[in-house]
Structures are given as structure tokens and as C-alpha cells.
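Researcher: Good morning. I'm working through a list of sequences from a screen, and I'd like to move beyond sequence-only analysis. For each chain I'm collecting a predicted structure so we can compare shapes side by side. This is the next one on the list. No need for commentary yet; just the structure.
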Amino acid sequence: MDVMGDKATLLETGRFVQPSGPEDMGEPAEAAEEARRRLAAEAGDVEAMSVLGAMLLRRGDLDGAEPLLRAATGEGDRAAANNLGVLLHQRGYAEEAAGWWRIAAVAGSAPAAHALGRHHRERGDEPAAEYWLRQSAEQGHTLGAYALADLLEHRTDVGAERWMRVAAERGHREAAYRLARALDRKGAADILAAEEERTPAAEAEQWYRQAAARGHRRAALHLGSILEKRGDLKEAGRWYLTSAKDGEPRAACALAFLLRDAGDEESAAVWWLRAAQDGDGNAANALGALHAQRGETQTAERWYRAAMDAGDNNGAYNLGLLCAEQKRTQQAESWYRRAAYAGHREAANALAVLLLQHGDATGAEPWFSKAAEAGSVDAAFNLGILYAGRTGEEAEAKALEWYERAASGGHTEAALQAGIARLRDGDEQSAERHLRCAAGGGSPEAAYRLASLLDVRRPPETRHELGEPVIQRSECEEWYERAAEHGHRRAQVRVGMLAAARGDVVEAARWYREAAEAGSRNGAFNLGLLLAREGSEPEAALWWRRAADAGHGRAALRLALLRTRRGDLVEGQKWASRAVELGPAEVAERAARLRDALRQELSA
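Model: Good morning. C-alpha cells for this chain:
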């Protein structure tokens, strides 16, 4: 009789038989069934003894179950032998239990083979464990397949995935989850599948989904993460919520971030609180940041400390930031140092910056190095600045090395500095590459320098049949405009010049005026020229005077000529003398001749 051999299986977390009948059987019906089985057992029915023994064992009545199971076992019932092993194991007689499991397993009981394999593995006899677990798995026992896969995975055996898949396909949720994790790792390693096959990542998602649907909270968490990365925030939120309600703090934290991003800060705080109270350091940090943003620094500090106590190094780093904002420099340094020693790269960078601000460049350098080697682009950039401040070719080379490392990590200012250094070395190709990165990252200075580099390479303007130049917008002009729109004064002047060359006086005046009003003396001078050509000499004089006061020699000479032409020789001589002082050489030479002529005229 194999009735109990088919139905009595061990739960994955312990050796307890599963119910042999429908779980929704009512108590009266169960009592009637037990009474019927008891009468049959007393009449010598072996199957009834086995089933009744299993019922009592399931209820926890070990004393009542044992004689029945022993009697049925004595009559050769393998299910009873298996359940007798379960009972003896619960009583603490592991070796005697193993003996009965062996009898049942040899007789063909898959649950007994599984239990015996577990027994041998717990005692370190892996060959025997593998043998019996394989027997169980090959007979179609789900828990046997899972336990075999677990054993093989522990030994990094390639057969582990096959048996994990078998268990997952038979409905084992932990197997489905672990299979998904294994496939995830394959996807991360970029193992490619044929076009007609599913990729490891796609298959992993399906197994996460199956495990999550069966109530596996970590699978629900991972499924939510996959969906969030894909942009399916609504479904991601549902799975995070499912996992969070089942007690997964990481899911509660992830759900809170989704809610915050959706603008529901209050609900986010509720889930962060729940996750933080369950020991999630990330959630504690988020709560700290939330309270710090509201100006509740004491509460923020408490949560940052909670994050630190949960093993999250961000807690110490955030405490350092909080203290630094409050000018508690000594405490900030202490927290930064604590996080930095724990391997927090941004804390190491912040500590180095703090030391540098206090003049301790020697103490700062190793922390910058540690942070940069750990991947901090800010630290790499700061190291570049540190070396750039030193003299010598070796220091210049090290500065460029760190600038380029930070630039490769997407640091815009580092890319600009690397571009400038490469330009200085004459390596225009590398300079252009760095400047394009920095300009694309939003640096106006990089956009201007890139435009200047391209401007030099611009071919001469083509001419049409009548000999007039055909002026077309070039790439360099686009970069000049991008820099100009971000307030770069020299770029504004250059855009104005290009507009003037096209004959667009209004556009040229607009850019010259923007540059001039921002303090550009070239912008003021060019605006004055434009106004003078348009017949507005009085306004032109105002802009030339602003440029001359800022040190523009040509503007001073223009003012000298304008005053002289109007008969104001004294004022003309004054501005001519100023132009001589300001230069450049050709301007100074012309201004000197004018000054001397005016001096003779005034002394005549």
C-alpha cells in the first residue's frame, strides 16, 4: 500500500508531514474520518493504521501515533516507515529515524529518500546525501529536487541549475527564486542567448514572477526592482507593496522612494519609518534626509545614527554632512573619518576636502587617493587640482592623469581641465575629445574653447559669382552660441562678431550689449563701433568710455579721436595718454603721435 508514500511529504523547513486531505475539511468530517480509520485499524487494517498514525503525527500526538506507525511498518507499509522516521526525529532519535527512512527509501519512498539525504548532509556525508537526494528527485519528489540542487550549488556543480529548474517547475517557490537569481547572475555576466531563445534576464523575470505570485517576498522585491528599472512604476509599486506587507524592509524602502518621486512625501515617510524600524539602514538615511530638509536636525541626526547602527556607512557620512552644515567642523571630521575608514569613498573625499580647507594638504592627499581609487570622480578631480597646484613636469603629468580619470567618469570640469592641458601640450585631437565631453555636459567655458578650436580650422568663406562671401553657420558658431546663452562673455562677443559679419546688426548689437553689461570690455568696445557706424556717436562714446575705464586701449584711442574731432583737445589729449598706457603696441604708437600733436597744438 503506497497511499501515505504518495501523500506524506516533508516540509522544506523541517520534517513534518503535509496534510493528507483537503485543508478545508471541517472538524466534524475529520473526526468522523479519524473514527472510521480507528475502527479499521483496530480490526487489523494496515492502511488504516498508517493513515491514522499520520493523522495523529500531524496533530502532534506522538504517543498515539507511534504504536500505530510501528504496527503498520511491521506489516511492510513504506509510508508508515517514513512517518515513523519523522516521529523519531522529532523525539530526538536521529539515527533510529534514519534507519526507518532507509527502509522506506529502499522500498521506493521518495519522501523517505529526501529525508535520509537531508540527514546525511547534516552530518557532513555529502556523497551519501547526494545519492539519496538524487533517488528522491528522480522519483519526482519536489523537495528532493530542491535539496539536491542546493547541495550541487554548494559544490558549484553544473547540474545544480537543472534540478533547481525541475523543483521550480513543480511549484517550489524558493527554487523559482533561486533559479531567477542564478539567471540574473548570468545576465549580469552578459551571457548571450540565441535570437530564438529567451535571454537569462527575461527568463529570470518570469521565475521571479512565479515565486512572487506564490508569496515569496524577496522575489516580489526583485521583480519590483526589474519593473522599476524598465519604467513600469505602477506594477513595480504593486509588487513592492506586496513584499513590504509580507515584512520585507527593503521593499518598504523602495516603495517609499517611488512614493516620494511621485510627490507623496507623507506616505513615503510612513513606509520609510516602517522599514527603518525593521532595521533598514537606507530607509533610516532617507528619513534623516527628510527631517534635515525640514530643518529638524535633531530628528535627522537620530535617524542617521540609526542607519549607522544598522551597518549603513551612509549614516556616518550623512552625520558628517549635517555637522559640516552647522559649522561643527570637529564633529564633521570625526564622522567623515569613521565612514571613510569603513570604505565610504565620498566620506573619504569629504574628509580630504575638510583637511585641505584647514591647510593640511599632506593629510588630504592619501584620502583623495583612497576615494579616487574606490571610484569617486570628485576625488579624482580634486587630486588633479592638488597636483596642478604644484610645479614640475611630473606634477603636471599626474594632474592630467587624474583629470582624465575623472573625465572618464563623467566629471564635466575635469574634462574641461584635461582639454585645456591637452591643448597646452599641442594634442588637439585629445583636447577636442575632452572639450566635447565637457561642453556636452554643460560647461560654457568648454563650449567656448571647443568653438575656438574649431574656428581656427574653419576654411575661408566661399564666394559667389559677384565676389561677395557666402557666409554659412558652422559648428563652431553653434558652440559659441551655446556658451553665449549660458552667459559666457567672450562667446557673446564672438557670436556678435559672427552676426555682424553676416550683416545682422540687430543680433550683433544684442550679443555685444549682453557681454558689455556683464562687464566685457571687448563687448563694450564692439558695441560702440556698431553704434558709431549706425550714427549714434554719443551712445557709442558711453560704451567706449566704459571699455576704456576697464583697460581697453583701442576704446581710449577712439575716445581721443572723437574728442579731438569735436574740438575738445584737452579731453582728447587725456584719452590719448590713457591709450598709450593701455596699449597694445600699435595702439600706443598711434595714440602717442596724436597726444604729441595735441600737446603742440595746445602749447602754440
